[in-house]
Write a structure and sequence with these properties.
mainly alpha, Serine Threonine Protein Phosphatase 5, Tetratricopeptide repeat
C-alpha cells in the first residue's frame, strides 16, 4: 500500500513537472517555472560571469592622461570583432547563458512574451556584447527589449544601454536626443539617472 502510494505520488509529481516544462502553454505553473529557472539558474550564472568580466576589465584598464579621460572605464580598440574571434571568455559565458535563457525559457505565445525574466536575459546579452566591443549585436538586443517589452520595468535601463551603444557607434546626436527625451518623459530610479547623466557626459 505504501509503495503504491509512493509510486502514485511520484507519477503525479513527475507529470506536473513535465507539464510545467512546456514553453507553449500559457499557464501560471509554466510561467512561474520558467521565470524561476531563468532567474535563479541561468541568469544568475550569466550575471556572475558578466561581473567577473567587468572586474577583469577594471583591473587591466590603463588611464591615458595625454587624452581626455572617458567617463566609462573601457579600453576601446578600433578593431572590428567577429563573433568567432577569441574575446573575453567571461563575456562569452554571460552571452551563452543569456542566449540559453532566451532559447530554453522564452515563452512567446500569441506574439507576446509570457516569461517576465526574458527582458533581463536580453539586457544581459546586450551588455555582454557591449563590453566585448560588438556594438551592432548589442544594439539589436537592446532594441529588441524596447520593441517587444514596452511595459517592462527594465525599459529605462535598456534605453540607457542603447544610447551608450549608439555613442560607441559614433551616433552621439541620436543618443543625446533619446537621453533628453528619457529625462523629459520617464521617471528614473537613482541608478538610472546617474547612468543616463554619465552617458550624456560621454556623448558631449
Amino acid at each position: 500500500m505504501k509503495l503504491r502510494f509512493s509510486l502514485l505520488f511520484a507519477g503525479v509529481l513527475g507529470g506536473i513537472l513535465f507539464n510545467a516544462c512546456s514553453t507553449k502553454k500559457d499557464a501560471l505553473l509554466n510561467r512561474n517555472w520558467h521565470a524561476l529557472n531563468t532567474k535563479y539558474n541561468v541568469l544568475y550564472n550569466g550575471n556572475l560571469a558578466f561581473e567577473e568580466g567587468r572586474e577583469q576589465l577594471n583591473t587591466t584598464y590603463q588611464d591615458n592622461y595625454w587624452e581626455i579621460l572617458p567617463v566609462e572605464r573601457l579600453q576601446v580598440t578600433n578593431e572590428i570583432r567577429l563573433d568567432s574571434e577569441d574575446n573575453n571568455p567571461n563575456f562569452q559565458r554571460a552571452e551563452e547563458k543569456a542566449t540559453k535563457a532566451i532559447q530554453k525559457h522564452g515563452m512567446e505565445i500569441g506574439n507576446e512574451e509570457r516569461n517576465p525574466q526574458t527582458d533581463e536575459a536580453f539586457i544581459l546579452l546586450g551588455k555582454a556584447r557591449y563590453f566585448d566591443e560588438r556594438y551592432v549585436p548589442a544594439l539589436e538586443s537592446f532594441n529588441y527589449v524596447l520593441r517587444k517589452h514596452p511595459n517592462s520595468d527594465k525599459y529605462n535601463e535598456a534605453t540607457i544601454w542603447r544610447e551608450k551603444t549608439n555613442i560607441r557607434l559614433d551616433n552621439e546626436e541620436l543618443a543625446l536626443k533619446n537621453l533628453k527625451r528619457l529625462f523629459r518623459y520617464e521617471r528614473l530610479k537613482d541608478q538610472e539617472y546617474a547612468d543616463a547623466r554619465a552617458s550624456m557626459a560621454q556623448a558631449y
